[in-house]
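Please complete every field before forwarding. Incomplete forms are returned to the sender.

SECTION A: IDENTIFIERS
Entry label: holo-368
Bound molecule: zinc ion
Molecule representation: SMILES string

SECTION B: INPUTS
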Amino acid sequence: MSRRGRQLLQVAPFQGELTSSWLARMSDTCGLHIQDLVRAALADAQPAQVTGAPQPGREVFFNRPARAAVCHFTAMPDQRLGALLPSFAGGHELLDDGFERALAAWYTPRLPWVSACSRCDSSTARASASVMMYPGSDRHICRRHRRWLLAAPGRCPTIALAQLPEVVAAHAGHMALTRTVPQAPAMVAFGAAVVWSWQVQGWALEPVWARRISVLAGQLDCSSTVVAAHPLIPYPETVAVARLLGAPAWRRHLVSTAAVHGLRTARQELYEALARCTDRPWLADWLAAGTRLRHPAAPHPDPLEHWLACLLGTTAWDGGPALPLWDLPDSIRWPGHYGVRSSCLTEVRSREITDQARHLALTGGWHP
Ligand SMILES: [Zn+2]
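SECTION C: PREDICTED COMPLEX
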């Protein structure tokens, strides 16, 4: 085997790594530009075509003949690469799999990604080039170093969680949910929508989020308006709500309460359970008042009312069709755009705030 061949074999992908990140580490080892490495990988599969150019934060996708060429070039089986690299096996809808020409293209990743924790691995592989990973549903926190991982190409920015132990504790609950329930990502997305519906209504006297915002702003040396929209701020409540709504025994109890005592009693029990799980004793009364007098900024329909209606109208809790319960209408989803969230939470409609957040790597990365 040639010296370069042996070098390539030493650069194994990490579990969940972006294909472009793996190839970037490989090109570092070989001393080749990454685009030249992609072309070299496809050299035996002529005709071949590479569209677009590598840019920070981009992913490289291959069609079927190109994937076969990459496997041959790196001497790694397709199954192994597919298992380790989330973007490798699926190709891309813009790349024709049935075409005999080997096609590679650079696009924006279809999934959120983060920079891997650089403290976790002191190997030369990671020291030479920062590793970009798909965090999946719950790998956005390094538990070993208690860090929230952010996304910035070529850097490894993180948020230290030493002063935010509740975030680390919530992450343990999040991982337990992911391990045990297939719909965990949808449940967390629902929890985020519920908590977002509370966030946009101000909670002016809410000290817990204010403290988290202050810790984060202090750590990143920026104003509180820049960090207010980051998913870390409501994360513990998001997970707590997801775990409550996702618990089958609790859902069975709620359904039977509604059947025996009526919707009003079931709703009050739900509010009280939410108050307990989020550790806010006042929340039950606040939610009850909210159903009587809805804030103009509150999402329509209210996520909790939507969930309750779905629960009482389906048999999802006893093995029936589960999807409708966790199907979120677009109108009540957690807004994916940082600027949209920021303007709702801080009443500052400023591109400068989003630009600062982007500079601090707060606008990308994991989201519910
Ligand atoms: Zn780490």
